[in-house]
Amino acid sequence: MMELKAGIFTVAMLAIVLSSPTTAQKSPPAPATPVLPPAPAPAPAPHHVDLADLLSVAGPFHTFLEYLQKTNVIETFQNQANNTKEGITIFVPKDSAFAALKKTTFANLTQDQLKSLLLYHALPKYYSLAEFNKLSTLNPVATFAGSQYTLNLTYDMGTIQVKSMWSNPKISSSVYSTRPVAVYEVNKVLLPMQIFKSDPPLAPAPAPAPDAKASDVAPNPTSGKAASGKAKADEKNSSYQVGVSIITYLALAVSGGLMLFW
């Protein structure tokens, strides 16, 4: 009986020892949450040049810009300018270039012809001034208006000319040239033979400026007559005075001679 109690006591003690915190098996720690690197910042959006704003402040290109907006060609150019893969090159005539042509030159064009004329002033790719030397070897060069609307480019010691059928303007300055947009000023309007069958007439030459030395006040018609009459009166008076002087001299001479005989 004593042995049975001793066995039960031993088993109970063993159970207590095994269930104590010091002998209990520790559970493995939970895995740590991995720290991820911060997400990269999004790439900045490409800078797009607003062609309408550029032409409105870089002018005088108001006539060309008005035609672009009237025909919505400005949207076509803007879409191409936003295409950073190809870009665009635009030849912009000054206002004086349009003023040199008769107003009927463009008033008689159809809407499609006017759009083609404007598209004729651009190349569907960006070209820096330095690239025109190589581009000139590829003549004729197709324009934005289509493969039948071509230009012949010449590059001579830095002078670049853009030849169409009825005009041969030169690039007078670079308005803007940063890829993908190039805008160059030309001193004449490009006139393709597909639209103009003959050389368009020029506008009448402006009247010469008045002489700076001339008086701004128109002379009174009567003032010329008065001046002429005064001159004649002065001349007559002068002749009369000379005549009186001669007669007086002769009278004195005669009287002097008579006195000698006395």
Essential attributes:
262 residues, alpha+beta, FAS1 domain, 4-stranded mixed β-sheet, 3-stranded antiparallel β-sheet, 16% strand, elongated
User: What is the CA–CA distance across the termini?
Assistant: 218 Å
Query: Structural class, judged by helices and strands?
Result: alpha+beta
CATH class of the domain at 51-186: Mainly Beta
Can you tell me the overall shape?
A: elongated
| Tally of contiguous helical segments | 9
The overall average pLDDT, rounded, is 78
Biggest sheet descriptor: 4 strands, mixed
List the secondary-structure elements in sequence, H or E: HHHHEHHHEHEEEEEH
What is the CATH architecture term of the domain at 51-186?
A: Roll
Helix content: 40-55%
Q: Uncertain segments of ≥5 residues (pLDDT<50)?
A: 214-219, 221-227, 246-262
Keywords: Cell membrane, Glycoprotein, GPI-anchor, Lipoprotein, Membrane, Signal, Transmembrane, Transmembrane helix
Pfam family, one: Fasciclin
Transmembrane segments: 240-261
Biased composition (Low complexity): 210-230
Kindly describe this structure.
It is found in: Cell membrane. This protein has helices at 2-19, 51-58, 62-71, 73-81, 95-99, 104-107, 111-119, 132-135, 221-261; strands at 88-93, 122-123, 141-143, 146-156, 159-163, 171-178, 181-186. The chain is α+β, with helices and mostly antiparallel strands. The protein has a domain at 51-186: FAS1 domain (Roll). The strands form two sheets. A four-stranded mixed β-sheet has the order 2-1-7-6. β3 and β4 form a beta hairpin. The longest helix is centred in the last third of the chain and has 41 residues, at 221-261.
